[in-house]
Amino acid sequence: MAGTDTGANSMESAQDTDVSLMLRLADGEDLALNEIISRWRDRVASFLLRMVGDHATAMDLTQETFVRLYTSRRSYKPSAAFSTYLFHIAANLARTQARWRKRHPTVPMEDESGELRHDPSGNELRPDESASLHEKAEVVSRAIAALPEDQREALILFTVEGMSQGEVAKALRCSPKAVEVRVYRARQALREALQQAGF
User: Fold this and answer.
1) Digit-coded pLDDT (tens) for 77-93
2) Where are the alpha helices (DSSP H) in the chain?
3) If we measure between CA atoms, which residue out of 116, 180, 179 comes closest to residue 142?
4) pLDDT in tens, 137-177
5) How far apart are CA 170 and CA 36, in angstroms?
6) Which pLDDT band, with edges at 50, 70 and 90, does 123 fall under?
7) Domains of the chain (ranges plus CATH)?
8) Of the candidates 2, 101, 120, the residue with the CA atom closest to the CA atom of residue 53
9) How many Å separate Cα 99 from the centre of its chain?
């Protein structure tokens, strides 16, 4: 029981720290941004990489996310978890990028999905197991990329980022029920893709 309380207190402490940093940033302490970036850059970059499928674009959008966070610092209100505020900015940038790419289609880089499939433990598997794992990961990667944007956002924030349905709903400006439906449909689509590929 005490362990649970300690874990909960630790999460609350982390959220308090994020809010405190954001309030300090709003008060003119620009160095607070460095700590926010240090704490959140990897998670934001990971989310955006899964959304846009291109490493260079994801890195650009990650940088832009923190630029937007800085420019909106004085309008920030700590009424929700900081993560929902930050991922809302990132999701909006990913949507804008997706709309731009529809109007300016380009040939995707060959190594785009490679970034998503990287498995540092892969070298411990037998060659046939490794090949099967990479093939399955490629099917999942393509299936995620083919999902409707709203389903892809909800799935990544809920399953990869570990946000609650309520937090995802706040980040995406929709209802928790809508998040539940989107995640369910996304998972169904992934299962069907794996079944069609023989997994």
Assistant:
1) 887 788 889 999 999 99
2) 2-26, 32-52, 55-71, 82-103, 112-117, 127-146, 149-155, 165-172, 176-196
3) 116
4) 777 778 888 889 899 999 989 887 888 899 899 999 999 99
5) 20
6) very low
7) 16-106 (1.10.1740.10), 126-199 (1.10.10.10)
8) 101
9) 18
How high does pLDDT run on average in the chain?
79
**3-state DSSP helix/strand/coil % of the chain, to nearest 5:** 80, 0, 20
C-alpha 20: how far from chain center:
23
Contact 48, 61 (CB under 8 A): yes
CA distance 181 to 142: 21
Question: CB 34: neighbour CB atoms within 10 A?
Answer: 12
- Tally Cβ neighbours within 10 Å of residue 111: 10
